[in-house]
Amino acid sequence: MGYLFDEMGPADEFQQPPYGTDKIWVSFSGGQTSAKMCHQIYEQFSDTHEVIATFANTGQEHEETLRFVHQCDQHFGWNVVWIEAVVHHGQRKACTHKVVDYYTASRNGEPFEEVIKKYGLPNKGFFHCTRELKINAMNSYLKSIGWEKDSYTTCIGIRSDEIDRMNARRKEYKFWYPLVNARWTREDVDAWWSQQPFKLGIENYMGNCVWCYKKSNKKLKRIATESPEWFDFPSRMESCYSTVGQKNGDPRKMFRGNLTSQDILEDAGVDRDGDELSGECEQGCEVFGQYYVKGD
Q1: pLDDT tens across 115-132, in order?
Q2: Closest to 32 measured CA to CA, from 212, 166, 184, 154
Q3: According to the 3-state scheme, what is the secondary structure of 37-48?
Q4: Range of 187's domain?
Q5: Which residue, 192, 189, 186, is CA-closest to 279?
Q6: Tally of domains within the chain
Q7: CA angle, residues 125, 105, 103, in degrees to nearest 5
Q8: What is the CATH number of the domain that holds 154?
């Protein structure tokens, strides 16, 4: 596979994080690619850098995701910091955070519902779920421990076969994609995990947030066919908060094609051509993807 290296030059010239910081923040999504990145960073740099890994729980992660993060922590000893967003209703204030753990983490969408109460339903035009539940919450934690902006390198778990997801302003923001730099693909990640004593117990098409609106309709219909209960939460959010944040009072729809959870459930089991099932969400839910602008 080769040593981790940065895209700015040859491998043998970049055996350290590219930005010269002594702090490394690992944004651990709870997926296998992100976990492999986390393992690599701790193995290579924990003796020379201050390394912190955080996992932001929205309350709608698959239970297997939570179990996987916990197993990684127990097996590898990363001391992952579990974070949940704290919403400030009635204030022009971004989400802050609270620290939880595997046993106290929300499992019924509590943080997610609080964000929806304030900002409305998320969809392809309203990305506040990622912004508030993940980015702002984790930034709040880093600030609380004294990590100043630009004093650390941010590691993001994107592979070389996902290079289009990298942020165009990554050097400005000190974003580092170690697995891209090391030319790791999905096949490499899967092969590495096949040699470990455990792995993430969900299919790739499900993802961590099972009903995510960024998934293709075919994936969502398959999930609705196999596990319709996963749409209980978004259905309830639609019935309670569809007009929140809507100036004209029209209900906001979450899913692509202007669909609702009920539309997807009613169409479950119907096979249609032309919609991909394999792979990950079209835009992905990595917290610092190509659409992120620092300070948002």
Answers
A1: 999 999 999 999 899 999
A2: 184
A3: HHHHHHHHHCCC
A4: 11-193
A5: 186
A6: 1
A7: 160
A8: 3.40.50.620
